[in-house]
Amino acid sequence: MDVSQKTCRCHPFLSLRPAADRKMISSNPVGWVRDEENRNNRMKKKKRITHVALIGAMWMSGLSTLQAQHLEPVRVGMQASVSDSLRTRTQHLDDVEVRAKKPRSALSSVTPIQTITSSELQLLGITSVGDAAKRMAGVQVRDYGGIGGLQTVSVRSLGACHTAVSYDGIVVSNMQAGQIDVSRYSLSNIRQLSVAIGQGSDLMQSARHYASAGILSIESRGIDWTSPQPWQLKVNAKTGSWGLFTPSLQYSQRLSSQTALTFDANMVRADGVYPFTIQNGRYKEHHKRYNSDILSGQGEVNLFHRWDKNELSAKVSYYNSKRGLPGVVILYNSDAEERMWDESCFAQMVWKSQLAPRLALNARLKYAHTWSKYEDYNVKYQGGKLTDIARQNEYYASATIGYDLGWGWTTALAEDFSIGDLRTNVVSQPNPTRYSSQTAWSLRWKWQRWQVDGNLVGTYISEKASKEDKGSSDSSSGSSGSSSSVNARIPADRKRISPSIAMNYRLLADETLYLRAMMKSTYRVPTFTDMYYLHIGNTNLKPENATEWNLGVTWAHQFRGKSLRNPTRGISLQATLDTYYNKVTDKIVAFPTTYVWKMVNFGRVEIKGVDATVSLGVPMGRKMALDVDASYTYQYAVDKTDSKKSYYRHQLPYTPRHSGNVSAVWRNPWVSVGWQMQAVGERWSMIQCTDEYRMKAYQEHTFTLSREFSLGKRKRNAESGSDLKLSFSLLNAFNKQYEVIKYYPMPGRSWQATASLTL
């Protein structure tokens, strides 16, 4: 991180720190005595230099800890209620350049939170949100291969339906399938990604955030209010193997000191025809992957407005794609005829207000519409063709009010209400509508070295299903039968209260060393597909219950350099270690019955694991540094449904016991070099852990070269960064042949080149 500023306003940062830390930092460590009469001019000058150096060192120490706690000066919100008595003091210093490695994990958070920024994504050659999520400890990504292949995210083997995806503060919903395809989000307009196990650290989040077992948060770039230039234009172009071409455009304009607009547009085009190898006994067969093409476009407009103690952000987004779905590859048969069209648009608004010194309000509104069309050609369908069309609408409103009770107590109450419906052309499927209400009451206590967060989430869900006549079945309908009758049995209303508690304790007052623990109860309601789709749907399904337990320790240390002129030259180290136990009951699975498969509550799963992360920053000179990050996950995730079954205590499908990744970035004035390696241990494609279903372990390496150029003089105090950025990445450099999902081969060696111009 580069910071260059003429005026260093330290006290707003210090006012957000705990009282003990403020006392330690604001104390006079070297005994500055203003005895001007006994000093000569030379000693005065020397003392002023030392004074500035020490202030810079203390400011850097405070900033490093604040970054670890993910605390920033906030214009509105609960943090703004802190006394402003310290904010009236301002010290004017000369330009100071501070370089430090931003902590990957929120070290003082009561729950595990991991973050990766856009600059790290570029330096490491990460190409998608799913690939970025793979680098997080405890995160599994289902990847079906191909340029436009489906990617879903799960935390600690709880399943994608238990993991929420949040985009700029509002949770994305998919009531039809329950899981979000993160491959549709472009990295060009993303500021940072974070994964929270349990829940995020923001007390003012929505009830949906509190109700989730894990959250993948995507945060867009937003607006820079401090830049002296009122507008900015950024043009990106990416090209690569297999016909990949991805142009993007971002434009931001400050209309006034209070209002700003941003615009983002991007496109992805690729034919996706990549080679792969099939092992057929002692022989290897070389084939090409077809029907993996994609053509997609996305556009987004954002409006930002601030006044007094209020902030308003509004967003309108549109996405459209058509792509092939590469099918399974079994020996000589690699043909695939499945096609998918997706169209979605949404409008959302977030309003944050500081109603009083101790009272804050966050309100959210959203409307979302999605349309999808699926086609498959096969002789098993009537007329040789299957066409499924689905439309979803959602109306969502949320409000969170928080109050600072004093004496370290803070409370918040969140209420979410949504109406969602699904309309399909499937003859035997009714059109359901779901009414959802979620209420979350949270309480936080912070005293000296302690922090305790607790919350209760109440959920009430009611549904209805219409009996619209969709006509008889034909080649264009999604029904496998000829009857036009609709089974519209209504499930009973669902009510549930889910508790959660998390805490941490700072073990040493002068060291960033925390012990944390968490217990959280969540559950997921069956999706519309689980309950209504064709003959496999079951309206008698009960919600799937999950309980999470976590115990961990976090540590950070800054090894200081010897020079007061550059006190941040020392090595920085951050490490986390978390052990956990998860239990899932009433697991929703597809179970074979006499004639057809049926969705039932059948499974019971126990998950034991360890997540570990290490982050190291090594200064190597005035303009050089080495950043190293590593994460490791051990998971013992087994089925404990029926002790009489042969697969009792067998590892869950697609869940490796061991997985991890390592990355390193050498930053220098010439060409920055990035390397990342992902390693996944052996796993099984079915619940029976036999050699027939065993999938081999693999390692994948990516190398990236990047360089920044300045094409002209930039205004003083403008945001850091160069006008032109170039990067080249070699993905899967050693051409490893592997599969994430059985019979879905992943791409081998490929390359990508990116150019980014900022005006």
Automatic annotation (TrEMBL):
GO terms for biological process: siderophore transmembrane transport. Residues 341-698 form the TonB-dependent receptor-like beta-barrel domain. Residues 109-204 form the TonB-dependent receptor plug domain. The chain crosses the membrane at residues 49-68. GO terms for cellular component: cell outer membrane. Residues 467-490 are annotated as: Disordered. Coiled coil: none annotated. GO terms for molecular function: siderophore uptake transmembrane transporter activity. Pfam families: Plug, TonB_dep_Rec_b-barrel. PROSITE patterns: TONB_DEPENDENT_REC_3. Belongs to the TonB-dependent receptor family. This is TonB-dependent receptor. The lineage of its organism: Bacteria, Pseudomonadati, Bacteroidota, Bacteroidia, Bacteroidales.
